[in-house]
From TrEMBL:
It holds the Pfam family INT1_R3. One of its GO terms (biological process) is U2 snRNA 3'-end processing. Residues 129-285 form the Integrator complex subunit 1 R3 domain. GO terms for cellular component: integrator complex. This is Integrator complex subunit 1. It comes from the Eukaryota. PANTHER family: INTEGRATOR COMPLEX SUBUNIT 1.
């Protein structure tokens, strides 16, 4: 099977095919399909991919398969049903990579739910990575009042839709979310207000809320806790200003949900900030969620 798949891959990437072509590809140019597979050939291709049993090449093979189908949605149902019906350990990995290449598959084929909740952080070849990365970094750069007013609401809506519909894909960018917050908590209060940094903290908290409960799994603990560290740093420096009041409430609700979903990991992490939480509880005695959290610790 490896030789057959390598041969098809070579056909589609043969430099002679693209020799003399215009390097500046028009924006709306239709893709050219060098190899076109029928439904039966697609199934045979899947058999070869599963028989190869090479996890490192799975992403490349699935991407090649998609490139050899002119209308991927016509064969999507057949591909999913065929791979799902195979009694093969590699079938689930194949379906995961198919989802990474065709995200709408989640709504067209909802019955393979285990595929959409799987941890795919370390898999390569996700078509949504570039899009989600651009959106997140754009939001983080909206410090200019004019840019913020024009783009903030639209960008926030896009990323919230992505978090709600494809949480696993956005969780691939969890470390990026944490990185965007780092270094902001120590800024002067005037800068935080003028450049909309408080808004970014609220926005990221909203994203994390939508990523529940998957974000509480141990596999995502490093990225999640890095992000939560930034919130604790913000509250340590500016926990007594009015802009953080609503954020404290949301943050405490999120921490309680974290403890409920993953008690061991959450408690160990939150315990190191007990003194800070205790100080906040004395300042904000009317926040029941904060009082309950401190008492529980």
């Amino acid at each position: 099977p490896c030789s057959v798949l390598d041969f098809i891959d070579t056909l589609t990437r043969n430099p002679k095919l693209w020799q003399g072509r215009d390097k500046a590809v028009p924006k709306h140019e239709q893709a050219e399909y060098v190899v076109m597979l029928s439904e039966g050939q697609v199934r045979t291709f899947i058999d070869y991919v599963l028989a190869e049993e090479d996890r490192d090449k799975m992403s490349q093979r699935v991407k090649l398969l998609v490139q050899c189908i002119s209308s991927k949605y016509d064969y999507l149902n057949s591909m999913v049903e065929y791979a799902d019906g195979k009694n093969d350990p590699a079938s689930k990995l194949f379906l995961q990579h198919l989802y990474l290449n065709i995200p709408p598959m989640k709504f067209l084929m909802p019955h393979v739910k285990a595929v959409y909740d799987a941890d795919v952080r370390n898999e390569i070849g996700c078509v949504g990575d570039k899009f989600s990365y651009y959106i997140l970094t754009t939001i983080a750069c909206l410090s200019n009042p004019r840019d913020f007013q024009q783009m903030s609401a639209e960008m926030e809506l896009i990323v919230r839709k992505l978090a709600a519909s494809h949480p696993v894909l956005l969780l691939r960018q969890l470390s990026v979310l944490a990185t965007l917050l780092q270094g902001r908590a120590h800024m002067d209060l005037q800068v935080l207000r003028a450049e909309y940094h408080f808004h970014l903290f609220h926005l990221v908290m909203g994203i994390l809320e939508l990523l529940q409960p998957l974000v509480f799994e141990d596999s995502y603990s490093v990225g999640l806790q890095n992000a939560l560290d930034c919130y604790f740093a913000l509250l340590r420096n500016h926990g007594n200003v009015k802009e953080t009041y609503t954020l404290i409430y949301r943050f405490m609700e999120f921490l309680q949900a974290y403890i409920a979903a993953n008690p061991k990991s959450a408690t160990i992490f939150i315990q190191q900030y007990f003194d800070l939480l205790n100080d906040l509880a004395q300042q904000h005695y009317d926040l029941q969620s904060l009082q309950q959290l401190v008492q529980g610790l």
